[in-house]
Design brief:
Number of helices: 6
Protein name: ArsR family transcriptional regulator
GO molecular function, one term: DNA binding
Strand order of the largest sheet: 1-3-2
Keywords: DNA-binding, Transcription, Transcription regulation
Pfam families: HTH_20 (PF12840)
Helix content: 40-55%
Number of strands: 3
CATH class: Mainly Alpha
Structural class: alpha+beta
Oligomer: single chain
Organism: Kribbella sindirgiensis
Order of helices and strands: HHHEHEEHH
Radius of gyration: 14 Å
């Protein structure tokens, strides 16, 4: 029997196909969020924990950025012990918004 932590229950994931275009654009507009996505794009799935990103913001602000990315269908997260691991949902997002991810994260700011 598995006991789900209260922290894990707070995670909700949206199908990118259900995300309004404006929400996707808003999520991609922020340079901190784009840096998170760029980092995830060059690492294997589930190898980057939230606390391992070198971000120019405080922990609470970083948490907000991860939540925005999750709500826009750009990332998936799962808890593993005390760490929250991340996965870029490139294929799913590209199905919903062809070319949008590449046009934003594959370019220099």
């Amino acid at each position: 029997m598995s006991v789900e932590s209260a922290r894990a229950r707070t995670l909700s994931h949206v199908d990118p196909a259900e995300v309004p275009l404006q929400a996707a654009l808003d999520a991609l507009a922020d340079p901190v969020r784009r840096s998170i996505l760029r980092d995830l794009a060059v690492h294997d799935d589930w190898t980057r924990a939230c606390g391992t990103f070198d971000l120019p913001v405080k922990k609470a602000t970083a948490s907000h950025h991860f939540a925005v990315l999750r709500a826009a269908g750009l990332i998936e997260q799962r808890d593993e012990g005390a760490r929250r691991l991340n996965r870029l949902r490139r294929a799913e997002f590209n199905t919903a918004f062809p070319g949008l991810l590449a046009a934003t994260i594959d370019r220099a700011d």
